[in-house]
Amino acid sequence: MAESESPDARLLAIAKNALRQTKSGKFDWVETDNQDAFLHTGESASIVISRYFASDNYTVRILNAAGRSIEELSSRTSFGSTRVEDELVRPVLVDLYDIARRTALQTDQVLDDLLAEVSEDDAS
């Protein structure tokens, strides 16, 4: 991807690739102090995906090696925005948030364990 591309286009590409890598099991996510934000720590930078329930907004932020937020992409833009990829951003960020949350909270493992627990035959 060329440096001449807009930051939004580059961030969308990062989000799409993070989604793909997470689906393939190559990206791990962890909880943060904010219960609606999840973190992937990479070699050169980190990614935080967040959901703001009050505004139904999803945001992906890039943190540099020092943990400072250096760029972000939101599913909601200001009124009157003409950003070309707006209709593409939201579905990617929603999917990334959902899979990051499920990964960080180990949702599938918890559900499998609970299903096994409630499905056990009562021998007594």
Features:
124 residues; 5-stranded antiparallel beta sheet; elongated; 40% helix; alpha+beta
The overall pLDDT average reads: 88
Low-confidence stretches: none
Classification by helices and strands = alpha+beta
What is the CA-atom radius of gyration, in angstroms?
Answer: 17 Å
Global geometry: elongated
Task: Tell me the quaternary state.
Answer: single chain
- The number of helical segments is 3
- The count of domains is 1
Question: What portion of residues belong to β-strands?
Answer: 15-25%
First-last Cα distance = 63 Å
Helix content: 25-40%
- Write down how many β-strands occur, each being a DSSP E stretch of 2 or more residues: 5
Biggest sheet details:
5 strands, antiparallel
Order of helix and strand elements from N to C terminus: HEEEEEHH
Strand order of the largest sheet: 1-2-3-4-5
Descriptive notes:
The protein is of the alpha+beta class. It has one domain (7-119). It has helices at 7-23, 86-104, 107-119; strands at 30-31, 37-41, 46-52, 57-63, 69-74. The chain has a five-stranded antiparallel sheet with strand order 1-2-3-4-5, with helices on one face. It is elongated. The N and C termini lie far apart (63 Å). 23% of the residues are buried.
